[in-house]
Amino acid sequence: MADPLIFEGRHVLVTGGTGSLGSSMVRRLLAGTDGRPARVTVFSRDEAKQHDLRLALRQRGRATDDVIYRDAEELVRFRVGDIRDHRSVRRALAGVDLVVHAAAMKQVPTCEYAPWEAVRTNVEGAAVLVAEVHEAGTVEAVVGVSTDKACLPVNVMGMTKALMERILIEANLGDGATRFLCVRYGNVLASRGSVVPMLVDQLAHGGPLTLTDEGMTRFFLTLDAACDTVVAALTHGEPGEVWVPRVGAARMVDVIDAVRGDAPVAVEVTGIRPGEKLHEQMVSDEEALRAVVHEGYGVITPLVPELPRRQAPPLGPAWTSARTDLDVAALRALLTRAGVELGP
């Protein structure tokens, strides 16, 4: 049986809606792939990015772009506000059915140097959202966007995202009818602040391409795959679950080779940045004991016993980027699909 069109006729709020994932979700909503929404609210605190997104949505081109253009004119509203502010969030939630919570501080070094700001945005912001969703009483589901860095966290960004996950999971224990759940994934190719755009820029300027450590590995997925995970979680997820896509992992030295191709550009090893891990994990050994495979995704069931768990064989071993499966050729194909301009 075909999946239900989860967004059909719904009013969808995207917090952090001008970020890489947020703006991709907005375009996906307007394309009607998963149902035509009744309204899309883009919520963020950067009015310049809102202006840029508004202009981008009005660009006409292919037939599908025309659909997005017309829908943007009819359906999208922009709200400038701060996820940490109750009044801002309350106004943004008016009439909302579904929430994609992507508002966050996500730069690892920035969070290390401004840990309290990261706590306020990633942790307090989640708590504010939960409180206002409960107060509204009309929201059907909230999906929080997390990161592999929340798994066994060693940096501030990961710690605060892990707490965000727990806040959303705990939100299911009240009397409200809202379903709270999360998605967790690795590095999104070509997203703002990710390593690939930096490497492409370094290549365009003749190098060198910088590498923090020759042994470093990371998970990679496209923006489309990230959006797919959000949609799958909203469509099939149960309260308190964390949905994790099964994506490829690669050595960073291979990512560099994939980006530069045969271009004669040097590589400079700069050392691990504050808060970085050598390898990331999507699912820890401990989480794997209460995780299952469902609809092609790893699903981490809730830790708290008050919430029901899926009855299925456990996932197995941890999902770690140390087990790489993307070579240079596979990376070049993936980067090309993501629209990244590579060396020859």
State the strand order across the main sheet: 3-2-1-4-5-6-10-15-14
Characterize the main sheet: 9 strands, mixed
So, the CATH homologous superfamily? NAD(P)-binding Rossmann-like Domain
Topology-level CATH name:
Rossmann fold
Beta content comes to 15-25%
Molecular shape: globular
Number of domains: 1
Name the structural class.
alpha/beta
User: Which architecture per CATH?
Assistant: 3-Layer(aba) Sandwich
CATH top level assignment? Alpha Beta
Mean pLDDT: 91
Residue stretches low in confidence (pLDDT < 50, at least 5 long) are none
- Cα separation of the termini: 44 Å
Note the run of SSEs as H and E: EHEHHEHEHHEHEEHEEHEEHEEHEEEH
Structure characterization notes:
The longest helix has 22 residues, at 115-136. Strands 3-2-1-4-5-6-10-15-14 form a 9-stranded mixed β-sheet, with helices on both faces. Strands 7-9-11 form a 3-stranded mixed β-sheet. The chain has a two-stranded parallel sheet with strand order 8-12. It has helices at residues 20-31, 47-57, 63-75, 86-92, 108-113, 115-136, 156-170, 195-204, 223-236, 252-260, 285-288, 328-337, and strands at residues 11-15, 39-44, 76-80, 98-101, 141-147, 179-185, 187-188, 209-211, 217-221, 242-244, 249-251, 267-269, 281-283, 291-294, 297-300, 319-320. It is α/β, with parallel strands linked by helices. It has one domain: Rossmann fold. Helix 1 links the parallel strand 1 and strand 2. It starts with 10 loop residues before the first strand and ends in a 7-residue tail after the last helix.
